[in-house]
Protein: Thymidylate kinase
Organism: Orbilia javanica
Amino acid sequence: MTTPHTPRGALIAIEGLDRAGKSTQCDLLLKRLNSSGIPATLQKFPDRTTAIGTTINSYLTSTSHLDDQSIHLLFSANRWERRDSLLSTLTSGTTILLDRYIYSGIVFTAAKPKSPVQPPNPLSIQWCKAPDIGLPRPDIIIFLNITQEDAEKRAGFGDERYEKKEMQEKVRRLFEELRGEGSNDKGDWWVIDAGGTVEEVAEEVWKGVLEGLRRVKEGNGEVRSI
Ligand code: NYM
Ligand code: MG
């Protein structure tokens, strides 16, 4: 049961390009946290288990088509429908690992080819970020940095929409832009070289997690917002 003395959990986002190893690292991390006595849970985005998630899944697997703005808003709605549960989980003292979050949301839409329209550009970073304003803000964003060459070598690349070289290169540039943008407090991003072995990457990820946990301990207990 929650008492006023239960320290809140940390909100830790894992981000990166497709095939950077996010899901592998999240699984390892979850085990390591729990075996270290730190209650933790995993929330993947998109969450394909909900009604909105089912629509997103059929878009990603190209069984349906949606215009760029509509699918963008659905990805955001898929996060909003989990907001209350994210907040109550954190308050109960459980740390949450997010396998992708709003940052993937912003860059994957902003990377799409622009149709010639009058400004304001409906796929600008600013436009893409707007629907996520107010969602819980991660205490740290661990970014798994992988080269295009390494990503392409990994199994399954190319299966889904967006898993094309040109798109991934744009996504890479936009992630760089976002990390350097100043739209985040200094130090929100923890960038890791994801080209090493699974064990090597896991060690670096763990350091980022410890930093996230430290920040929560030193904070005022409140979950910040985007
Ligand atoms: N993606 C993911 C988006 O386009 N917008 C979002 O808001 C999120 C969370 O979905 N290529 C894209 C990135 C991926 C794809 O993700 C599926 P995953 O982690 O492979 O299930
Ligand atoms: Mg994928």
Observations:
- The two ends are 28 Å apart (CA to CA).
